[in-house]
TrEMBL record:
<feature type="domain" description="SIS">
    <location>
        <begin position="45"/>
        <end position="184"/>
    </location>
</feature>
<keyword id="KW-0315">Glutamine amidotransferase</keyword>
<dbReference type="GO" id="GO:0005975">
    <property type="term" value="P:carbohydrate metabolic process"/>
</dbReference>
<feature type="active site" description="For Fru-6P isomerization activity">
    <location>
        <position position="367"/>
    </location>
</feature>
<keyword id="KW-0963">Cytoplasm</keyword>
<comment type="function">
    <text>Catalyzes the first step in hexosamine metabolism, converting fructose-6P into glucosamine-6P using glutamine as a nitrogen source.</text>
</comment>
<dbReference type="GO" id="GO:0004360">
    <property type="term" value="F:glutamine-fructose-6-phosphate transaminase (isomerizing) activity"/>
</dbReference>
<protein>
    <recommendedName>
        <fullName>Glutamine--fructose-6-phosphate aminotransferase [isomerizing]</fullName>
        <ecNumber>2.6.1.16</ecNumber>
    </recommendedName>
</protein>
<keyword id="KW-0808">Transferase</keyword>
<dbReference type="GO" id="GO:0006047">
    <property type="term" value="P:UDP-N-acetylglucosamine metabolic process"/>
</dbReference>
<dbReference type="GO" id="GO:0005829">
    <property type="term" value="C:cytosol"/>
</dbReference>
<comment type="subunit">
    <text>Homodimer.</text>
</comment>
<dbReference type="GO" id="GO:0097367">
    <property type="term" value="F:carbohydrate derivative binding"/>
</dbReference>
<dbReference type="GO" id="GO:0006002">
    <property type="term" value="P:fructose 6-phosphate metabolic process"/>
</dbReference>
<keyword id="KW-0032">Aminotransferase</keyword>
<keyword id="KW-0677">Repeat</keyword>
<feature type="domain" description="SIS">
    <location>
        <begin position="217"/>
        <end position="362"/>
    </location>
</feature>
Amino acid sequence: AAAEKGGYDTFMEKEIHEQPHAVGDTLLGRTDEAGHLVLDELRISEEQLKAVDRITIVACGTAAYAGMVAKYAIEHWTRIPVEVALAHEFRYCDPIVSERTLVVSISQSGETMDTLMAVKHARDLGALTVSVCNTHGSTIPRESDAVLYTHAGPEIAVASTKAFLAQITACYVLGLYLAQLRGGSYADDAHAVLKELQEVPDKIEKLLGDLDRVREIARFMADTRSVLFLGRHVGYPVAMEGALKLKELAYIHAEGFAAGELKHGPIALIEPGQPVFIVVPGPDTPHGLHGKVVSNIQEIRARGARTLVIAQEGDTAVEPFADEILRVPATSPMLAPLLTVVPLQVFALELSTAKGLDVDQPRNLAKSVTVE
Ligand code: G6P
């Protein structure tokens, strides 16, 4: 079993370290010599894809958070409206779907019953269905019009890590491909983003070598009873995912919030010593979002929160208000989730280990939920 884990103590740790490959392999072979995306494997005609006027993403759990990240990116790059629905809600909410709707399901296993039923329902309503999936020959891709495989390799640990990064990457690829099909400045912008995306695996590799501090923090926090996570824009689903990892692995009450929502309720939870992770957008994020999140850190720190700040290298504005700063390599705002989630994965892993829990097989959870 030790050999299967490649020298790591747990599958989760191994899979976290495989993330540069999960992203790199999901990009591999999907561009031509000129650096344009080629997705013949999709098997949906360019005409049909160009006619798409609405996208609905269906997924559960971590895959749904990948979908939330994808919404920001695909809408920005294509100007096609994107909605994200939990698969088990989608079917029962009388969804608005036409033959020009692209329903994108995201599933690591390809066997999640809730997601499968959502796909079947979408197809019955006449939608075009694409499966973003990590498992060849599984049920959801077979029941879909097309598939875009993530190439994360088998994921054994129940809590998803490398599949999440691969799902986000595949959704970026899909969004950039749709932008490329739109042509003009959409295509030019997509080309530039794709180039930057190709640099992300090296950045993840560098980040993975730089996580000693977050491990230490986690070990000191083994008795903590509640942790909050704040994020904004694409950092919002990252905050949700950070909270989910902690619930799944360490059985600690954890909640992710949109940072802008803080003043509308959650700030009441802040009392002296309350640990709060804040996923800070890069300083060049549009609309001054960086400054707004820095103000949030200031506000909760003034009320006694222990601020654990995830910020880009070189972001000095966070320094006065951070109890701890966890640095991630700089990247453009839309791609940041591929980096900012990594310290949160490692935090949950390490805290679970410190509590003596089974990291790979948390209680009450299944890797793939094949019942409704
Ligand atoms: C289960 C797992 C989660 C996973 C979710 C969706 O609940 O415990 O880690 O995110 O299913 O799984 P899928 O295979 O559809 O991505």
